[in-house]
User: Fold these one by one.
Assistant:
Number 1:
Amino acid sequence: MDEPGTDALGRTDMDMPNARIMKACRNQIQLREVDLDSLLAAEHPARVVWAFVERLDLSHLYAKIKAIGDRPGRPAIDPRILMALWLLATLDGVGSARELDRLCREHDAYRWICGGVEVNYHTLSDFRVEDVEFLDGLLTNIVAALMMTGKVTLNRVAQDGIRVRASAGASSFRRRQRLEEFRKVAEEQVNRLHEEIAADPAACTKRQQAARERAVCEREERISQALKEMELLEAQRAATDDKGRKLKKPRKQGGKPDTRPIPRASTTDPQARKMKGPDGGTRPSYNGQFSTDTASQIIVGVSVDNGGADSDQLPPMTEQLHQRYARTPKETLVDSGYRSFEQMERASALGTTVYAPVAESRSDKRKKNQPVRGDTPTIAEWRLRMDTEQAKAIYKERAATAECVNAQARNRGLRQFLVRGTKKVRAVLLWFALAHNLWRIAHPMAQPLAA
């Protein structure tokens, strides 16, 4: 018989002799006759994701499977399962492979996608970032198919950057001298480990030996990569002035003392750079770029850079869109961060008309949209164009497109990368683009913006 219980008021069963209650019995064995398919509603997002994945061409992923016919080896997990898991996880704001592994065991929607197939976080983590080019091609194919149906026109796009915190910590950035010391220590650790294994191979299991060797080798590789990034930072520093502008002539030896901070590189994520975030704080980050079709809010281009400025990102994105779809957007909407005359000239030469706000005039005698001496025909035309009512109406679509896409990405967990390096970061951004486009296709706007 159970011991007398106590309720919220401190009363025991002895104080309530006439009360009839049903107590919880958690050691009773129950047999539930239920199938996974009946656990989800007909319009559940997991079903939408799976229907989307079933229509994708994943032949590239199937061609990589080595378990074929009578060949020995364990059967591989269906790539459609892994693809659907990460798309649903991205929509739900889950960015950790370990968290996704837990959901596959405990959450009905993820269990439904798995359908009894066991997955682990190693497989999930590797699948997410191992084939960036495939994800990039998948984005191109999806948008190209939408262009054939007329849902995406690419007549007008809005581009905006989204700075996301990197996996590296601020304290991981070191100067060259310190990095050289770390590399020597890492090399000594690798040599010492090899000597220990050779002296007593039976001291630990093969799995333990492989894990130890992998750890020290990865550390040595990260230090070496940090030194390579240091060379790039030093070359960049030598080619710019104290305000970060490019020098027309090499810096003279013995001239004015250089007061800029000494370059530092991270030992955990060498390609990350310290940049100013949306809250005004400075931290290791990456600068992602999304280009979005204004008529459909479909993401058509994705890139990543470790520079803190958006001004150099306009022409590369325009070139990327032309390479993807053999078409250059007629109009490109950007904010004031892209307002570089040189870059706007390059983008205009590629065949797109740039819409960007004009800076306020420093002189009270001149209107801000009036051309000034030294303006090229392209810049003078841009100033006059932005003063028209038609241009002002067109530019209003930028906030409703680019800002909306960035806000949705933030809401889906794009606040800090859990992967390291520009290649893996680009893979994560592509997952966000694919998940966003999936949702836009399944839930189109009731009244889309005019093209």
Number 2:
Amino acid sequence: MYSFKVQARNSFGLSDFSAPITLLCAYIPSIPSPPSTQVVGNSILIKWTAPSANGSPITSYRIKVIQKDNNFSEDLVHCNGNTASIINALNCTIPISTLLAQPYNLALGDSVYAIITSSNAYGESANSPAGNGATIVLVPDAPINVQDNVAVTNSTVIGLIWSGGVSHGG
């Protein structure tokens, strides 16, 4: 922040100083770095680094995730970059089930790319480059009906039988 006072001069001398004027030299935030995406359980964690705020605090982020048609959409339920918790944490988590549904329509084995913009009182930055593209995989369900096989063949081998447990591909 800068403060200025002005004084006039003519052939008879100097005036008193004007009242001070204060200026904030700020502008829109810098372009964020590419965010990272990684699978955590059955969700995708999107993380980013705060860009330079350029003199005015960052007030929000827009977190956009690629759709099957290569357009990007925001998930304001899980990654609302207007909330203080996401602004401060610099990350959010989207369930993979959300990314498999409309409008994303991604499938198991697809890569998840995200882009970030940041805003302050002076406007919104340009989009970051797309992040690293985590591959969608799901953790399998736990096996059910686990039973011991009772037929122990030797002292170092134990047999188990189970059913259920969906693998979810991948």
Number 3:
Amino acid sequence: MRFTKLAPAVLLAAAALALGPGAQADPLKVRYGYVVPGADAPLMMFKKAGIAKHDGASYTLDAIHFQGTPPMITALAAGEIDVAPLAYSTLSLAIQNAGMSDLRIIADVFQDGVPGYYTNEFMVLKDSPFHKVEDLKGHVASTNAAGAAVDIALRAMLKKHGLEDKKNITILEAGFPNLKAMLFEHKIDLMIAVRPFSAAPDLREKARTLFTQKDAIGRSQMIIMTAREPFLKKNHAAVVDFLEDTLRELHWYSEPKNHDEAVKIFSDNTKIPAAVFQGWIFTKGDFYRDPAGMPDLKALQANVETQRETGFLKGDLDVKKYAELNYVEEAAKRLK
């Protein structure tokens, strides 16, 4: 009788030994931060059935919303998220200011200003008196968070034209969804417009682009997927599975034949009208996403240097030292 009662435990122990020390009885929960649906949000959160083959098997996804990428640094440091799509600017801050020398770049999320693709816009009202950057002197610009990628681009452009926050222009922080109303109500004079918010029909009707992010800083490795080295080493297989599914989702959504269905999925999940997505999402009117998940490290290095020039970074940072691209390379090979 005693043997019968112990047998299940013995069998479970034997099974665990057979699977090896890295085996997991339950799927790994990947806690993934994001800011904007349709941009840095993981495509798996929109749940197109049958694409993410490993979801629910080797990992599960827990998508957590943030107002900007800077708060993700604190969340990473506290162990509250596992994977963070950091901007080029917050990558640097996480490594230098927060001391996360074990932070690693593991994949591309999206790039801004790639020839033929979308670049973020900085918009003013059509009937406003602002026709060049210098005209903003003494007025109010917006940002989502100080030190964010679009914020660095804004400050770099202002600096080129002799403008600086708190000296001759004011920069206010607010969430992306709130900026359009603030512009229309004249609470701000310059609005940062990113996808999908820049596609809103009423914004296109009432506002115009004063300059773009590409005008400000050239090509940007806008967002890179990052994680800390201990998490990556402990969960190598699950991370590769997650990246494989990420690429599968990207390929499906990028297929022109799937465009209308993709628009419906995004509209249903975000509660944003389909018309906002229809003309641009996963086309050349969208940000560029590398189909193999490979980030542009040359552009990333240039972006980090721009950040240093605007005073948000002390000293140099060699981004190649923090790249661990073997995970996404392994994932991409599975799709060939």
